[in-house]
Each structure stands twice: as structure tokens, then as C-alpha cells.
Amino acid sequence: MKSVFITFDQAHYEKILATLDRLNCRGFSYFQQVQGRGSKTGEPHYGSHAWPSMCSAIITIVPDERVKPLLDRLHEMDLETERLGLRAFVWNIEQTI
Fold first, then answer.
1. How far apart are CA 46 and CA 34, in angstroms?
2. What predicted TM-score, i.e. pTM, was given to this entire model?
3. Looking at the predicted structure, is the pLDDT value of residue 94 above 80?
4. Between the chain's N and C termini, which has fewer beta carbons within 10 Å?
5. DSSP 49
6. Angstrom distance (rounded) from CA 59 to CA 42
């Protein structure tokens, strides 16, 4: 099992949900408003007057074989609109209850 933590501009929300559904990644937790700034490119997401956009985050735990298809699709979405910002991070899951 792997944990996939996805941070994204709120404009990606519907597409990310559809991707999770399509890949049968049922369980997730959604963080509606997250502030941040990418480490490479893109606009800051601070929810302020100067930087009004916000980002969101989703964390999902998936079987190992679903990670690559999920990351591939997320990477395609990021390339389509690079300035919006979309990143995904993967961690090993040691144990669940």
C-alpha cells in the first residue's frame, strides 16, 4: 500500500475526483483550503489580495499497482496547465487498522 498526497489548484478538483473514481481509488481525505507556494514554478496560493487563488489537497491510500496510473494521469493534468500547479508525493504505508 502507498499513500499519495496530491496538492493542486482548486480548479483541478473535479478532474482529480474523476481520476480517482476511474482508477478505483475509493478512499481519500480532502483538505479544501491549503495555502502554499511551489518549489519550482507557478503562482503562490495564499488566498490574499495579492495572491487570491487557493490550493487544496487530497490524501489517498492505494494498492501499489494503482500508483503509477494515478501519477501518470496527474502528471498529464499538470502538463496541460502548468501554471496552476499540481504535485503528488508518495509514501510507503507500513501498517493500517
1. 8
2. 0.89
3. yes
4. C
5. S
6. 22
pLDDT tens for 8-21 read 988 999 999 999 99
Q: How far is CA 62 from the centre of its chain?
A: 14
3-state secondary structure of 35: coil
Instruction: Convert the pLDDT of each residue in 69-93 to its tens digit.
Output: 999 999 999 999 888 889 999 999 9
Strands 29-34 and 86-92: unpaired
CA 27 to chain centre: 14
How do the domains of the chain map onto residue ranges? 2-92
CA distance 18 to 56: 16
What amino acid is encoded at 93 in this protein? I
Q: According to the model, what pLDDT value does residue 44 have?
A: 77
Return the C-alpha cell found at 3.
499513500
Which fold does the domain 2-92 belong to in CATH?
Answer: Alpha-Beta Plaits (3.30.70)
Provide the 3-class DSSP secondary structure of residue 90. strand
